[in-house]
Design brief:
There is one protein chain. The protein is of the alpha+beta class. Strand 7 and strand 8 form a beta hairpin. Bound molecules: 3,4-dihydroxyphenylalanine. 3,4-dihydroxyphenylalanine binds next to strand 9 and strand 10.
Length: 330
């Protein structure tokens, strides 16, 4: 005869002192497994009373095993917690930074904001009117050709310059106007170290009473000294643009040799920067301004070459290749 009280006592003690999941499993097999004395006895039960006693023992032991199992898991977790050192440095997320072209755009915007100009956004998909006609561009001008410009349809194109922003602004408000607009422009050029079919320009427009070429030159000088340093000189040369009269192109002294002449500026001492001029009366008429009342200047220049110069990047296409080894340096 088995002493079931003693069986229960022993099993209780062993379950309680099982120190690991494996040890607990051993105890469970010994006292509750198919070949345990308890299970064998249960299979041979003939009378109701013995059945009830043995089943009560089985139930209690099963419950104790389950409880001990839970306690062991909990202990395991606590042990793991003790080995977690919360003072260790975490894994730092990789932080990106602004693309060098975006950096230049932000800088240019800052300079204009400092001058009291407003930065306006304009669209990249434009009408032929805003890109050419309103800017007094003659119908015969070669840049209108499908070989030079990306057309969406006969009346719609990807803007070839930010001068479209002048028209958009003047169409929607009255002078005085002091705005700059920056963004992407598109031309059907074959990519080369000095040009890509998609590049960036900034356009400035001032419309007020009594504006002269002197205001234009003063603004350019201020802009380039803010951009490249206080020692820079600016020179303007006569030129032609259909939307300005008179028109000029402007250069800045080379940042490497300060004008003395070096390989970088091809021994000229100067860098060509962009075009400018006094707004042509025909443009004012196209947007409904009275050219006798209002006067203004405008200028535009490419930003990609400035960024390339600033970082001594020999090939503008590198800005577009998204090679992190290049971009991460700036
Ligand atoms: N839009 C001209 C270009 O892309 C640059 C330019 C010249 C802008 C003269 C102007 C300007 O505002 O007055 O080549």
């Amino acid at each position: 005869m088995i002493d079931w009280n003693a069986y229960l006592e022993t099993a209780r003690g062993e379950i309680e002192s099982a120190a690991s999941a494996a040890a607990l499993d051993e105890v469970r097999v010994r006292h509750l497994g198919r070949r345990s004395e308890l299970k064998r006895a249960l299979r041979e039960v003939r009378d109701r009373e013995t059945g009830m006693t043995l089943n009560a023992i089985r139930e209690e032991l099963e419950q104790l095993v389950a409880e001990r199992e839970g306690a062991l898991v909990q202990e395991e977790r606590l042990r793991a917690d003790e080995t977690l050192d919360v003072t260790l440095p975490g894994k730092r997320p990789r932080r990106g930074h602004l693309h060098p072209l975006t950096q230049i755009c932000r800088e240019v915007e800052d300079i204009f904001l400092g001058l009291g100009y407003e930065i306006v956004d304009s669209r990249e998909v434009e009408t032929v009117w805003h890109n050419f006609d309103a800017l007094n561009q003659p119908l015969t001008h070669p840049s209108r050709s499908h070989r030079d410009t990306f057309y969406v349809d006969d009346d719609t194109l990807l803007r070839t310059h930010t001068s479209t922003g002048q028209i958009r602004t003047m169409e929607s408000r009255q002078p005085p106007i002091y705005i700059a607009t920056l963004g992407r422009v598109y031309r059907r050029d074959t990519p080369s170290p000095r040009s890509t079919p998609n590049f960036h320009q900034v356009e400035a427009l001032a419309v007020d009473r009594g504006i002269t070429l002197a205001d234009l030159k003063g603004t350019l000088m201020y802009f380039f000294r803010a951009m490249f340093g206080p020692d820079r000189e600016v020179r303007v040369r006569t030129s032609f643009f259909p939307f300005t009269e008179p028109s000029v192109e402007f250069d800045v002294t080379c940042f490497l040799c300060a004008g003395a002449g070096c390989v970088f500026c091809k021994h000229s001492g100067w860098f060509e920067m962009g075009g400018a001029g006094v707004v042509d009366p025909a443009v004012f008429e196209n947007v409904g301004y009275d050219p006798d009342e209002w006067s203004g200047f405008a200028w535009g220049l490419g930003l990609d070459r400035i960024a390339a110069q600033r970082h001594a990047i020999p090939d503008i296409r590198m800005f577009w290749e998204n090679d992190l080894r290049v971009l991460e340096q700036f």
